[in-house]
Write a sequence for this structure.
DNA sequence: GAATCCTATGAATACGTATTCATTGCGTCA
DNA sequence: TGACGCAATGAATACGTATTCATAGGATTC
């Protein structure tokens, strides 16, 4: 058996502000001020304290600070564990928050059924803001979190209106743009492939697409892939092929990638036999080998709005809804060579 | 009559264990025990406390708990803000940690130069474990964090040996597998495309590839893409084409996707004119439209090992290095129809 | 030259919980 | 029956910091 595992500096407890105070010959209060309100400390003292702190390797304890000051610099995020889209959102939001001096405490869930348990854990952390990837979170769950006096932002769920703040892209008009583009290309029959029909985002996208198509006399049957994943999209190919439409509008890029490959595996050529559109504007949509026509969400802009709401404590009592327009990206998947 | 579910609204400060104690007619200590050591409380009392807590909407304060108990359930993660690969790792690690009752506090950085600042912030949070996406973190920065008595794990940087624990795939043997496969396919000349040559992972992969190729008398010049991104890969096409090799081994999938599209845009057919391999085994590599030959990292397994090390407090004083083998995925990008 | 104000600091307290120590009541064993 | 052990609880304290209140000079004003 190996005995005392001697780590230099390992067993020693981290230095506290009191330790630094003694080392620098000042009071603990002065040390605290040096780090959290330097302007209240004279130049000379600040210097001495800083040196003492450096000598002892002192670093303020964020937990104690949060406890006392009743506010943390931590923003919570409840996000699905899977999904290309959410990974990108998370990445963008993290960047924006970091730029505002906030850290992100991540709570992920695999199954929507876990959300309640996760939210209970979230409550234990007195986060200064909460981001909810709400396509997967029920409205009543959203409203339960509003109790917190900290800003709460639902990402991509405009239906959350009134309960919490929200930031989202205009799903309906985005889909109208896509549908309109397809009609321009000569599309006369089409199909919509959604991910999960119970999700409000999915519904809004279908609604927009169906209305625009309807305005041009084109019917738009709905097919449910069952998940927002490549595989789910791939598995839809047969059902789509059976309907033999001019075009297929897919509710999200990730599913669309699967749909495309599924269709091509059945010998259907895109766009010659069938046009395909997506939604989200994932990075992969722009890859030359894919070049998907899609509605690009301005993720960075959305993330910036979200971060601003999360940082602004006043927004807690005044829920704000931000809706941003996406823009059309036209790729090879809808470019008919003939007509 | 469910009147009790009413919680005094927004502005009211959250209930504390003392509030619950009064409500339930017990001491604060008993309330604390009810939540953190229920077995020390009698059945009846536990019941009464739970009801009082529910009535007041009480939730334990994680910060206060961490402060007093000197340990948090929070694991820190320092990860680059961009990159498909890291997003996947993060996603996997988050899942594994959630299963172990840990939350993830995310610190992201855009530029390696920010790492020092980020690490300073990390130190403020007394995280119970720290995950370092260390391909971008210097060894001296790693060792500086070892001071913490909490487990520190470098993900994908075996060179961290001795300083902190590490979890990584066997880069060198993985690349040997890929190279060997290419030679079997009849490859006689080849090129290696790395991301950033100063990164140890990049070096290890090139080393493995070059050695295996060398064993078969094939030279392997190195080309640096300049970043681990699609665009960087796309931009390499010209330099690759100029060398006109049989095969190009790319150091990471994300770059490989770019290389493929870049080459095809120049009229080079894959795999007929040129074979391509990647490394990482990103989900996109398995997409039918891409079907890249690559070395698949067992991300879930790596994440599990990382999570276990991060949770095991003993691992702090006993750095452990875990190296796992990846497996070869053979896709269309190396399948020669003729020869 | 005193009244006043401002700056820099220290002493003391509170944040919400976990934990030690002490106390009580009760069942058990000799 | 008395000594003892155990289970359940309460009182008190400590975790590390921010902040209020008080104090001592020193500069400023009339």
């Amino acid at each position: 058996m190996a005995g005392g595992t001697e780590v230099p500096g390992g067993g020693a407890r981290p230095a506290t502000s009191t330790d630094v105070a003694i080392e620098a010959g000042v009071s603990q209060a002065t040390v605290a001020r040096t780090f959290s309100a330097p302007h209240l400390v004279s130049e000379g003292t600040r210097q001495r304290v800083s040196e003492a702190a450096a000598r002892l390797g002192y670093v303020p304890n964020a937990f104690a600070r949060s406890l006392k000051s009743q506010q943390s610099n931590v923003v919570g995020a409840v996000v699905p564990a899977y999904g290309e889209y959410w990974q990108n959102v998370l990445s963008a939001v993290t960047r924006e928050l970091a730029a505002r001096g906030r850290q992100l405490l991540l709570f992920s869930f695999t199954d929507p059924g876990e959300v309640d348990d996760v939210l209970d854990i979230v409550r234990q952390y007195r986060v200064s803001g909460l981001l909810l990837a709400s396509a997967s979170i029920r409205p009543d769950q959203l409203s339960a979190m509003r109790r917190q006096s900290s800003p709460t932002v639902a990402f991509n769920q405009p239906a959350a209106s009134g309960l919490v703040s929200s930031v989202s892209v205009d799903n309906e008009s985005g889909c109208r743009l896509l549908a309109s583009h397809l009609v321009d290309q000569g599309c006369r029959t089409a199909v919509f492939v959604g991910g999960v029909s119970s999700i409000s985002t999915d519904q809004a996208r279908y609604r927009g697409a169906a209305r625009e198509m309807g305005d041009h006399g084109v019917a738009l049957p709905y097919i449910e892939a069952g998940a927002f994943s490549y595989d789910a999209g791939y598995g839809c190919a047969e059902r789509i092929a059976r309907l033999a439409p001019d075009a297929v509008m897919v509710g999200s890029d990730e599913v669309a990638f699967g749909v495309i490959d599924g269709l091509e595996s059945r010998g259907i050529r895109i766009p010659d036999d069938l046009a395909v559109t997506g939604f989200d504007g994932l990075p992969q949509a722009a890859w030359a080998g894919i070049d998907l026509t899609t509605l690009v969400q301005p993720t960075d802009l959305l993330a910036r709005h979200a971060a601003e709401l999360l940082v602004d404590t006043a927004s807690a009592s005044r829920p704000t809804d931000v809706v941003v327009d996406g823009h059309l990206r036209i790729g090879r998947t809808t470019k008919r060579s003939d007509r």
Remarks:
- Chain B touches chain A through 61 residues (CB under 8 Å).
- The two ends of chain B are 80 Å apart (CA to CA).
- Confidence is low (pLDDT under 50) at residues 1-10 of chain B.
